[in-house]
Amino acid sequence: MQDILIGFAFFLIIEGLVYALAPSFLVAMAKLLPTVSEGALRLTGLVAIAFGVLLVFLVHG
User: Fold this and answer.
1) Residue 61: predicted pLDDT
2) Domain residues of the chain, as ranges?
3) How big, in percent rounded to 5, are the helix, strand and coil portions of the chain?
4) Half-sphere exposure of 28 (CA within 13 A, CB side)
5) pLDDT tens-digit profile of 7-34?
6) pTM of the shown model
7) Which residues contact 25 (CB under 8 A, 6 or more apart)?
8) What is the distance between the alpha carbons of residues 47 and 54, in angstroms, rounded to a whole number?
9) Helix 23-32 / helix 2-21 crossing angle, nearest 10 deg
10) CA-to-CA dists, residue 34 to 18, 21, 40, 43, 48, angstroms
11) Which helix (H) or strand (E) covers residue 28, if one does?
C-alpha cells in the first residue's frame, strides 16, 4: 500500500510541475487533443502502460 501511495504522490508532483512550469504548453496540448484520432490516443496509452510496467519490473526486480 505504501508503494501505491508513493506512486500517486509522484504522479501529483509531476502533474503539478507541468501546471506550474508550462501552463501555456498544457493549454496548447489540450487544444490539440481533439484532433488526434482515438486509435492514436489508445496506442499512446497502451505504450505508456507497457513502459510503466516494464520500468516497475526493472526497478523492483
Assistant:
1) 74
2) 2-60
3) 90, 0, 10
4) 5
5) 999 999 999 999 999 999 999 999 999 9
6) 0.70
7) 18
8) 10
9) 100
10) 20, 23, 11, 15, 19
11) helix 23-32
